[in-house]
Specification:
Elements: H1 17-20, H2 33-47, H3 50-53, E1 59-63, E2 66-75, E3 81-82, E4 85-86, H4 87-100, E5 105-116, H5 121-138, E6 141-150, E7 158-167, E8 184-187, H6 193-202, H7 219-228, E9 234-236, H8 242-254, E10 257-261, H9 269-278, E11 292-295, H10 297-308, E12 317-323, E13 330-333, E14 339-341
Parallel strand pairs: 5-6, 10-13
Antiparallel strand pairs: 1-2, 2-7, 3-4, 5-7, 8-11, 8-12, 9-11, 10-12, 13-14
Length: 354
């Protein structure tokens, strides 16, 4: 058998994480700097086309004169069931939300189950039931799927892969490259709830109050925003890597700076307390039912009003703006009047959260 040629990293220009880790580490799946370098240096050179190069939450494609959004995601959350949801509704809502971030009306999903030998069928039934209920609530249909079984000890009970397609309305063009200085940055509600909910169950921790995941489908909220104006510049759902990762991705892709005001970012007391105890930054904790929007300033007030009129946007808040200064960088103005750089996380504070 021919030997596989070693991976040649000598031509890479980005700093060291992949060179420091010749084997896969958990951080490569965390949505931070390690994930970004894996994609940029290993996958993109092999697969890259114009649609993939956008690196959005979903790809915007034109097929037969129809503009489509197409997305895929895999779910390996541990534990399978957590306050506010389970891997089943997480898989549906996560893919629906990726489509919605392109402004699409989600329509159809595929579903692939990877089951571990020995898992109780009652567990699989609960997951499937949750998926069906979430799909009906989101107005999408699961139309195709696949099932595989791996040997005992080679899985975590249930893994799920979903892919989704939806139709992008005429006049909608949501891309990070459209962001310009002066755009207003809006977050749709309180951040960090999903990550803290997962952690509380996984580690058996109590924070004095019950914390539930914010897992929810965002297509209806996006529809309300687009009804105000189709000229939104970009939307992102801050899942892995949290708010910080989403803002950094947008800043890098657009070449603009982003200035946020820490005091305006809605961090619920339960998340703040949990993060304080554990030494975590809420900006990096995952969400599953929130979005970040960059909106032209002339439309910001009307879009904010529309968001607050929707059940999933009642706590929507302006947290900052795109600026000419420090292009490609996210900076936070602290409560004390200073500033700090909000960098892209290297890996992930809380692995296996989605």
């Amino acid at each position: 058998m021919a030997e596989t040629a070693p991976l040649d990293v000598t031509g890479w220009t980005c700093p060291a994480p992949l060179r420091d880790h010749p084997r896969v580490v958990m951080g490569h799946g965390g949505g931070g700097a390690l994930s970004a370098e894996l994609v940029q240096h290993l996958f993109l050179p092999e697969f890259c086309g114009a649609a993939l190069a956008q690196l959005g939450d979903s790809a915007a494609l034109t097929l037969g004169g129809v503009r489509l959004a197409f997305s895929t995601d895999s779910y390996v959350v541990r534990p399978l069931f957590f306050p506010g949801g389970c891997i089943g509704d997480l898989a549906v809502n996560g893919t629906v939300n990726d489509l919605a971030m392109s402004g699409a009306e989600p329509a159809y999903l595929s579903c692939g189950f990877i089951l571990e030998e020995g898992v109780d069928l009652s567990v699989v039934s609960r997951v499937a039931r949750a998926m069906g209920e979430a799909a009906r609530a989101a107005g999408v249909e699961v139309v195709t799927g696949d099932t595989k079984v791996v040997e005992s000890g080679h899985g975590d009970g249930v893994y799920i892969n979903t892919a989704g397609i939806g139709v992008i309305p005429a006049g909608v063009d949501l891309r990070a490259q459209r962001v310009v200085p002066g755009d207003v940055v809006i977050v749709s509600g309180e951040i960090g709830l999903h990550g803290v909910a997962i952690m509380s169950v996984r580690e058996g921790l109590e924070f004095g109050v019950d914390v539930e995941s914010d897992c929810a489908p965002l297509a209806g909220l996006v529809r309300s925003m687009l009804a105000v104006t189709p000229d939104l510049h970009v939307l992102r759902d801050p899942t892995r890597g949290g708010l910080a990762a989403a803002l950094n991705e947008i800043a890098t892709a657009s070449g603009t700076g982003v200035l946020i005001h820490e005091a305006r970012v809605p961090v619920p007391p339960s998340v703040a307390n949990a993060c304080s105890i554990l030494g975590l930054d809420p900006f990096y904790v995952a969400n599953e039912g929130k979005l970040v929007a960059f909106v032209p300033r002339e439309h910001a007030d009307a879009v904010l009003d529309a968001m607050r009129a929707h059940p999933l946007g009642r706590a929507a808040t302006v947290i900052g703006e795109a600026v000419e200064a420090h292009p490609g960088m996210v900076v936070a103005r602290t409560r004390l009047g200073g500033t700090r750089v909000v960098d892209l996380p290297i890996g992930e504070q809380l692995p296996r959260i989605c």
